[in-house]
């Protein structure tokens, strides 16, 4: 009987891993990534502008970087990556404008904070395709919006949190209180209370606009998480970019507590001292979005519009790398995922 249970669990883990961590469309390597209108045999020259913190945040920016790295390897594009020298609107405009002036095309702006800058630079360089991640407010013939169903992935994170919690209290920490981050909050809360009625969900944000420092303030996130844990929460989901590192530290210092990561499978990248407390991560396949947008450009798709990545397209999901931790709740989380897929339930986008 024990062997049958182990076999069933292994199959479930394998199925979950396949459906939540797909690599997206595969392509054959090409010698010159240069097909499409007007490029002749020139190599495609991609420019990617990171969000606050840049490469190395083990979260949002690193997911974008993974997509760019894959494009360089498999599509053989020439690519540069930059991080604004400051957080002002002028810095963001200058960053995108410089890439356009250098002939980078397409340009990928990582994060909704680039919205105004994208609108400005897209108008100045109408022949340059600019893709922006996490924003669909800019409508222009040369602007592509890459958006995600964060509420769906967060719903599953909430389900896992509620099922794993011993106290019946879980918590959400957002980087900055914006409509985008509130999608994470709404999905997480709904997933928790619908999966385990009576679950208490506490919510806080590291900062509130116009203060956007909440994506790069790990000490503040650590303090918030510690307070939530002291109040009885024993699972903390943090969607705050680089600030998430502080939250992980607080959870690791609390015996019996669990953390849920975001954007990437943070169990794979976290420091050894905090790795084992990561129950799962809400995986947001920014890497797929970046790679597929570059691939589409190469194939001649240069028009603007909105491309949405959701549960059905493996655009969002949850990680199962910490097999021992997730195993006891995996069957019920998978059941919640199926209900989202078949439309039995809908994850809300607003708290």
Automatic annotation (TrEMBL):
Residues covered by the ABC transporter substrate-binding protein PnrA-like domain? 49-322
Bilayer topology: Lipid-anchor
Chief site of localization: membrane
Please give the InterPro entries that the UniProt record associates with this protein: BMP_lipoprotein, Peripla_BP_I, PnrA-like
Q: What keywords were assigned to this record? A: Cell membrane, Lipoprotein, Membrane, Signal
In the UniProt record, the signal sequence range is 1-21
Q: Name where it's found.
A: Cell membrane
Family in the record? Belongs to the BMP lipoprotein family.
- Give the protein name, as stated in the record: BMP family protein
Write down the species: Planomonospora corallina
